[in-house]
Design brief:
With 344 residues, this protein is α/β, with parallel strands linked by helices.
């Protein structure tokens, strides 16, 4: 019996030691976990009016820091650019700029430019305005592989109106008219690379044999990737007053060409209006005045070139991409910076 009691006591002591061991490990584990998951205020080593210096934790990333300090992951590029890094590592000192050091992307020797690319239709065909599926895929892959950031036209509105900077190698993609191949050819490729784009619709064309249908338009818009904006009602040259058309009739026609497509877009898919694409890229003071009256932020032409934060918002340049563009020619259209000494 004494031997049995001693064995029982020994077992009790053994389990007691195990319990103490688990308690110690738990305490130490909490300390380790606290070190791995520092509270935001515990990670800040320096805090100023214009910047914060953060000691990165194990789970920190450019995106999580952007969400924490800017309210959106999409601003991660601001942290990456300022620190000249592509990712965050544990114990890195990361400077978070709270104030943009280069408002409107103007530097001492250069300024940022943003190309706006203009497509029309996609797929087979010998029409110059038709870009093959193969070429479009290669062009989007080129943007992706070479570090270009495709931004939405709404982001570009903020760049122009508010001086809110965009990534250094920003590009905007637009597609005119509303051909069905936008949905069948271009849209799957844009989704593959998660590239936003804006489709400019002239609404009399919608539902025609080769045109988008409103359910396709709605599907693309609801994806959050494709925006829809007006390209007039019937695609006339709005800058030209017709022969035997009075000044009053001309003004009425311009007003209708601007207001009708915007009304259809807001009614059908409830998209906020911000940019108007001029048919044939032509405009004049009458048309621009109507855009201003309807509170449009931008008007886009098809004059080739790039745009800066100080470009005139109602005469923005767009470079048309044709079916016979080689990849080298495409790449030459992607100028994202211009030296002040060589500026136009």
């Amino acid at each position: 019996m004494n031997i049995a009691r001693r064995k029982t006591a020994t077992l009790h002591s053994f389990f007691h030691l195990i319990a103490i061991g688990f308690f110690v490990l738990a305490v130490q584990g909490c300390t380790v976990l606290k070190a791995l998951h520092l509270l935001p205020e515990e990670r800040v080593s320096v805090k100023g009016k214009d910047y914060v210096v953060v000691i990165a934790g194990w789970q920190d990333s450019l995106e999580s820091l952007a969400e924490e300090y800017y309210g959106q992951e999409s601003d991660a590029w601001r942290i990456a650019e300022f620190n000249n890094i592509s990712e965050v590592h544990h114990n890195d000192e990361i400077v978070i700029p709270l104030v943009d050091p280069y408002p409107s992307a103007i530097y001492s020797d250069s300024y940022q430019t943003v190309p706006i690319l203009c497509y029309h239709r996609f797929g087979k065909g010998h029409i110059k305005l038709s870009v093959s599926e193969k070429n479009f895929q290669e062009q989007m892959k080129y943007l992706y592989d070479n570090g270009y950031e495709v931004i939405s036209l709404k982001q570009f509105v903020d760049f122009i109106e508010k001086g809110k900077r965009v990534p250094q190698k920003s590009v905007v993609i637009t597609i005119d008219d509303g051909y069905r191949s936008t949905y069948t050819v271009a849209y799957p490729i844009l989704k593959k690379y998660n590239f936003p784009a804006t489709v400019f619709l002239y609404t009399d064309f919608m539902g025609a044999r080769d045109a988008l249908k409103w359910d396709q338009i709605k599907s693309m818009y609801n994806s959050g990737l494709i925006d829809m904006q007006p390209h007039s009602k019937s695609h006339p040259n709005m800058a030209i007053q017709k022969t035997n058309e009075s000044s009053t009739d001309y003004k009425v026609r311009v007003r209708e060409e601007v207001s009708v497509p915007g009304g259809h877009i807001t009614q059908k898919i409830k998209a906020p209006l911000h940019t108007f694409a001029y048919p044939y890229g032509d405009t004049n003071e009458e048309v621009i005045g109507e855009l201003k009256a309807k509170k449009y932020s931008l008007g886009v032409t098809v004059i080739p070139g790039v745009n800066s934060s100080f470009s005139y918002p109602y005469m923005l340049k767009r470079t048309m991409i044709f079916g016979d563009h080689t990849l080298k020619q495409f790449a030459q259209e992607l100028t994202t910076s211009r030296d002040i000494a060589s500026s136009e």
